[in-house]
Amino acid sequence: MLFGDSPEAHREAAPSTARGKSSRAPECVAIDEPTAALARAIPASIRLGTSSWSFPGWRGIVWDRDTTEASLARHGLRAYGAHPLLRTVGIDKTYYRPAPREEFERLRSQVPDGFSFLVKAHEAITHREPMSANAQGASLWLDPKYATDQVIQPAVDGLGASAGPILFQFSPMGIHAAPSAEGFIREVGAFLAALPQGPLYAVEVRDRALLRPSWGAMLADTGAVHCYSVHPKQGGPLMQAKIADPNVQRAIVCRWMLHSGLSYNQAVDRYQPFDRIVDPDPTSRDGFARLCEMAAQAHKHSFVIINNKAEGSAPRSVRLLAETIAALVLGHPPRRNRHA
After folding, report:
1. pTM for the full model?
2. What is the DSSP string of 80-118?
3. What are the boundaries of each domain within the chain?
4. How far apart are CA 180 and CA 23, in angstroms?
5. What superfamily would CATH give domain 32-330?
6. What are phi and psi of 161, to 5 degrees?
């Protein structure tokens, strides 16, 4: 199994039980010249991608054939990495279970040079609840040793040059008052300062009260970066940039997760099979494009991870974001592919 998926998700699909779907390893869809030209127009320092890759509905967008979720979970990453617009991917499963170095090594072996992974840290580190405990019952909340041994070191050792940001995602905690916000910021700052130097640490929060000058100052002091996210519990990326100044970040890390006004389950029902843009969000797209442009001008790396629940189809959102970035970088829009 990869990263804690259920056994059912990884069983080989027999042709007789997956009507019309191939159990053979998928290949990347044929890349036409407009797509290749668009990829060449995007600076190499800008890495766009999706959160995970096991979606059969991406046939004709990423995959060359009908296939099963199980086949994609096992074999889809190689085809995903062959698409020139997909230069990074989010590893979400590590949020629920840490992965050993060997699993990261297997992922690294399937992608080309220059590709990178965003790795979500185990939720035990970022939750105060009793589930965040080790075998002895001690809390793992903001535990730097656990984070180093179980999250950071396996990812860095296994991914090597393909290691991108390590993301610490904090769910909404209902922080509204300044004293609570300042206390949380101090706790997170002490945690980040105790981690090994070198890796790129990104922090995503979903409480607007945390977006205050002390938040940006703490990140600057520790060398970590703010994750500019789009989620109903958070303001847009450019609003966040007013507090977490992109000019002082080591890199730009972004996640475009969930369309405004929808719950996760509502978005899944509305957008499946994730093969088309259903609810365009040009405001968020423009915000992320401008952050990427700023990073490129400052010779910094940028990473944008997009979820299917953002607009309906993550790889199609990647395409539209790439076109917006190219328009900013080149000063004129590239020729659109009619299938975008």
Report:
1. 0.90
2. HHTSTT--EEEE-GGGTS---HHHHHHHHTTS-TT-EEE
3. 32-330
4. 52
5. Protein of unknown function UPF0759 (3.20.20.410)
6. -65, -15
